[in-house]
Amino acid sequence: MLKNDQPLIFELSREGRTGYSLPEMDVPQVDLSELIPAEYTREEAPELPEVSELDIMRHYTALSKRNHGVDSGFYPLGSCTMKYNPKINENVARFNGFAHLHPLQETEGVQGALELMYDLQEHLKEITGMDEVTLQPAAGAHGEWTGLMMIRAYHEANGDTKRTKVIVPDSAHGTNPASATVAGFETVTVKSDENGLVDMEDLKRVVGDDTAALMLTNPNTLGLFEENILEMASIIHQAGGKLYYDGANLNAVMSKARPGDMGFDVVHLNLHKTFTGPHGGGGPGSGPVGVKSDLIPYLPKPVLIKRDEEYLFEYDRPQSIGRVKPYYGNFGINVRAYTYIRTMGPDGLKAVTENAVINANYMMRRLAPHFDLPYDRHCKHEFVISGKRQKKLGVRTLDIAKRLLDFGYHPPTIYFPLNVEECMMIEPTETESKETIDAFIDAMIQIAKETEENPEIVQEAPHTTVIKRLDETLAARKPVLRYTKED
Predict the structure, then answer these.
(1) Which residues cross the membrane (predicted)?
(2) For the chain, how many structural domains are there in total?
(3) What is this structure's pTM?
(4) Within 10 Å of residue 117's Cβ, how many Cβ atoms?
């Protein structure tokens, strides 16, 4: 039994009830035993719940109300850009001409869809300052791996096989070293300086003739713009390496600064973040990759091109790293991103960046008196505060996150980046109103006061949720992933 007397779907089951009605079979019945080996068939029917359609609808509707999403509440997850997903994007993605396409249709019959994807590539080239873009990668980390594989292919094509190391900052997203490792590289960490930026002297120390690339997001994970980016690009390029841009934080500079102009050679974008595709829970995503001209030959194939007013896929790419995803990317997310870009226009995209930065700085300054601010300087789209002050009173950052649930908010990202003790990384995005932002700030300030006056209420939170605090170690090591019928 779930809390609040919400029964499991199996507990609603009553023998003989059905939630569906199938028409009589109007085709010859096939004996599947002749087609499927016996070891793959059941001798008895599975013990599935027997419920009516009404039971099913009420059960799952009730469960859905317990889920937190962008449409139901504020989602301040730093580095995730959980902005509102405009419903016009959903409407366009559901147009029959898009939603009912089959991926194996001949290109002659899907010229409209191909034109949309080609035009999206052109817009992303302009936004990033890259020379070519592929929409094939399925998500951000997949885009990272794709970009790194192209960098690897570039070095190998030039006979530069000694370049086996990828430099990542100590504040990097965890996917950066993971993607580099999967792509066959070793990772080298470069430290941050006292201002939260890449330590230039340490960068000069770790770069060398074995450097394949530096992976960087700008602004960085602390929400700070890497003001030495041009010098960093010069150092990496002079050493023979490439500069890789993690596009997770593009929402902070979109239409204001382009990675290509900063010296980056490869960039991946998170269409499901910056360009308002719905995400969370493992997908769906889209991670297009853009490259400068010298990396174009290594793009995954096929490459979508326009020739004589016709859109088609080109497969004759002898230096390509090959296909990285079946078909050509997540088309529905691409449609949503294209709709967003065309709806906003260049002025609208600039306003996105401006409002995201204003919202983050406003929230940071209002919270600064109540929490530790490790880097007291102008931030971009997100910022980091620390709960070290509260920890001295026996309240951890995890407790603060749990207490926020009682106020109806999804907690911010906590304990990341790793180079800030008791870290909370907050990203309000541009879509939240001042009223919403103020209400969240007020909740954070109240929690800070509770920590001083009544720490137990924070330590024992949450108090109002259906499920109270879990044994997180046990939940991680021994998760219960399926229903087991009790005797």
Answers:
(1) none
(2) 3
(3) 0.91
(4) 20
